[in-house]
Design goal:
2 copies of one chain form a homodimer.
Chain A lengths: L2 H19 L1 H20 L3 H21 L4 H4 L20
Amino acid sequence: MDLNKYQKLIEELYFEKDSKRGLDKTFNWFVEEIGEFSRAIRKKDKKRIREEFADCLAWLLSVGSILGIDAEEAMTKYREGCPKCGSCPCECKE
Amino acid sequence: MDLNKYQKLIEELYFEKDSKRGLDKTFNWFVEEIGEFSRAIRKKDKKRIREEFADCLAWLLSVGSILGIDAEEAMTKYREGCPKCGSCPCECKE
């Protein structure tokens, strides 16, 4: 499914609640999800890892929506190779 | 563009480097990007906010790839309403 359709889906589900809660508080929830994702990785809980990955993605999209970001448009920066070195695969030095 | 196509695009760009670096170190980079995203929000730098949003999404997808997660498959949990209350929009209490 299109990235933008996912963003719209998450908006239908959560935009009203998330925008009422506000940007900073919603960002905190996003960070909380990242913590849960990290814990699932540490515990090597495969089902949980997948669930928490999806939650991180959903909250990131929702934070983006509050900020007025079009996810698809934002991701165009990756469509012409690495935004830093211009190559694909990336040849940047670490 | 499809979410999975974005995941494949990010894999073409970064999977070799990111998987060589390993899961934990790549997760740290992902968290670093979240910090940059947070800073851009604090500074109200619109262009930067969009850039950092995309970077967070790209790194999240790459962490997912290292973990063998299919982003599209993982996101199915949001396709039948809120995974907790089952409603759309979500009616969960905070």
